[in-house]
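Structure representation.

___
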Amino acid sequence: MIKVLLLTSLFLTSSIYAKENTSESVKIVKKTESTKNGTAITAEKVVIKKKLNPHLQSKINMLIEQKESIDQSLKENNIWAKIYSNYHTFKELRDQKIILDDQINILDNKYKPTETEQKMLDKLKGKRSTLIGKLQLLKEYENNPFKKFLNPPDISDIPTVGNPFAIISALSYIKKLKSDEIEYNTRYESIQRVMDKLKERELLLKKILLLDEKNIKYKEELLETEDKIKTFIPVVDIFETTQNVYLKKIDETTLNLKSDVKREMEKASSIGMIILFFLLLVLLSKYLVKRYMSDNERFYMINKALNVTFITLLVITLLFSYLENVNYLVTILGFASAGIAIAMKDWFMSILGWFVIIIGGAIHVGDRVKFVRQGMEYVGDIVDISLLRMTIQEDITLTSYMHNRRAGRIIFVPNNYVFTDMIANYTHAGLKTVWDGIDFMITFDSNVSKASSIAKEVTKKYSKGYTEITRKQLNKLRSQYSMKNTNVEPRIYTFIEPYGIKISAWYHTNAYATLTLRSTISMEIIERLQKEEDISLAFPTQSVYIDKNVPRKMPEQPTLFEGEAE
């Protein structure tokens, strides 16, 4: 009603002051036409063009500025205006396609089209192909283009609060619903602002046309704005209805979840008090046992028994609390596993280590291995791998000879050591040989080349079979491991030491009988070296001179004649 009165007042005002607000300018237009007999007739037409006075023009300019400001706000970050623009473009392209189809049908139905008509037909078909491509790109705007933004976020997968861990999921879901609600309200507010801006734009255009009723440009803009308003009115109505339903559903879901969370928290608190009571009882029992029992072994057994008792009570409490549904079985097992893992973490780590050993395949029964634990080295053959430990039979090896000085023991290694300690496998992946080395020292004036040759000949003679076996095994392992150095031939190294030249001979030998071959090669090298006159074994020596001048050999000076002879 207010808008009608405002428009009426503006119309009356413009009518009363029309003569005062306008000035006429006369323009004479001459038009010359030729008749059939060639004579020319000149006609004069008087055109009266009305001009707006400055005061009225300033009002119109002010209204135009307000309209442009609204247009700018509609363009900036307005998804609804963009959707409508695409929808409007789709409608225009579809109308153009309909017109083109009619024109093409007319030309196609001609019996004998001319060359010009045929060219026109081809041109129209090309335009139609282009239009079809554009329509395919905008196909989603064909029917209900605002549907995607009108649909609220889906309320599904509502968590069931049946255990303490589900409380976190419920609270997270409530937070998600609140976020979705804010986001949907923001959408509604944005389309409501667009609607208000369009109505304001419509009113400004009507005011401009009351002052300048013959302006075709603003008439077209008014029609376009009215069309937009007609399009957005049902969208806003649907959005408002959907919003009301969606908000009620969110409120209902939130209230139900909060109620379930409160109930589960009360239940969890009761269970926690019971568990705390049992824990204090077990701790008190441990304290009394530790204080009044001197036998360490019995204390250890009683301590383990108390741990098992507490775990059993914990499991029973949780079973009676959460076994209302079979789905809670997973939760119960989780609680039980956590308690057992805390009380018997070493056992669980050993069981996990057993899985790693069995599945990983790094260690097998029969492998020769070396364990290093707190500075002690143990080398032997694995004779058994159980769920909790590996059993090793210690053999006489170089480690026994140089470090332990004893062998033959049965060593039990917990499986959890595979995670914390170094384990060396001498026979992994089918490898049955290892590198072994023998060092000996010769004097500086000995024939080093001959000694090296002797060492190489002896090592090559006795390790030939193992070298071939190793070469074949390494070739098989190339597909599994990246091996850079696969040279398996015996190697001889020479080093300068304070008391002579050290010769180090390295060769492949059986991993289970390293000392046997080492002993054989050592004896052979000694025998060969003793037969050579220009090779002497070196050992730490020292010369001591008592009450005797040490003779020193003076260097010879060249004579005059020797210098001239040179």
